[in-house]
Amino acid sequence: MKILVPVKRVIDYNVKVRVKADGSGVDLANVKMSMNPFDEIA
């Protein structure tokens, strides 16, 4: 049996999120990414 488990990478919850200077979104440069905590439980 084969099982497919989709997971999502999100910004680590210990990292303070920075907004881009123009306000168009989150600055993802040099940000630590981790697995979604709810996906870790699955």
Automatic annotation (TrEMBL):
Keywords: Electron transport, Transport
InterPro entries listed in its UniProt record: ETF_b, Rossmann-like_a/b/a_fold
GO molecular function ontology, one term from the record: electron transfer activity
Superkingdom of this protein's organism: Bacteria
UniProt KW Transport keyword: yes
UniProt entry tagged with the keyword Amino-acid biosynthesis: no
Full protein name: Electron transfer flavoprotein subunit beta
